[in-house]
Amino acid sequence: MELRTLGGTGLRVSALGFGCGAVGGLMVRGDPAAQRRAVARALEAGVRYFDTAPSYGDGRSEEALGRALPPAEADAAGAVLGTKFRVEPAVAAAGGAAVARAVRESLEASLRRLGRERVHLFQLHNRIAAAGGGAGGALTADQVTGPVADALQAVKDAGLTEQAGITATGDPAAVRRVLESGVPATAQVYFNALNPSAGWAGHAGPGGQDFRGLIDTAAQSGAGVIVIRPLAAGAVAGAPARHANAGNPGGGIAGERYDEDLARAGALSALATALGLESAVELAFRFALAKDGVSTVLIGFSDGEQLEAALRWVERGPLAADAVARVLAL
Q1: Range(s) of the domain holding residue 115
Q2: Cα 43 to Cα 164: distance, rounded to the nearest angstrom
Q3: What is the pTM (predicted TM-score) of this model?
């Protein structure tokens, strides 16, 4: 398993990251024995980054990961664990003390579910936008670099987390401001073969949100890049039927359009066949690996077979430059 340095954090993470979210669903709706087997297999194969959040199954993902990856076992393997938090816009508007209390309480609750005294990475899960609030609970760049950043420094000083980062979704200009401030040590970036605009500005696809090269912005600011949604919530497979453990693929990220992505996935499948790859899913994963500045690519698994497939693909390495160019030409 290829290991990469997570930006300026000094943490070493695997090129393939183990996503514990609700879309793949294994760590939310899966059988506990299957969860333990998958985590053990991932560790055996060299996976070293595990990503969860309180919002994944109302804490069930964190609880499942805590059971499947005990601290002593994780430490012995050198595993890096990240979780997240949200700040309600009303709390953000109330200012410093309210934000600090909410952030600390969220982290302490996550640590209880995970069975740990600290995590390696604690990440803001709100969208970042020019105006705060709204249906998605967005925060402004000033709120993130002000009271949220202060609250994150406080939990770092308390030894509850080693590093702090953001989910780099929302308005790209506002996200860019936060990244260029140097506050986040990491950025979770939406990036896939159906909308690669976070890697190549302007390549958003018909009607898609242009993420304006945020991967380069993050990398240039020293932030470690964690790719999220490399399979477009599973749409790149081009199959409407979903695994029994898989969750609702729509509405999770501003700019994501699952039904339209599903319809467009046929072109990726044809290209994968032309390139001699197993599937469009292999193509999409290795495409994400190939972008300069990316530290780890998260896949959310529904079962152990999907994990085994990803382990085959990561061994084959990033997609070649000529194949990347053919994806962008689509």
Answers
A1: 3-329
A2: 24
A3: 0.97
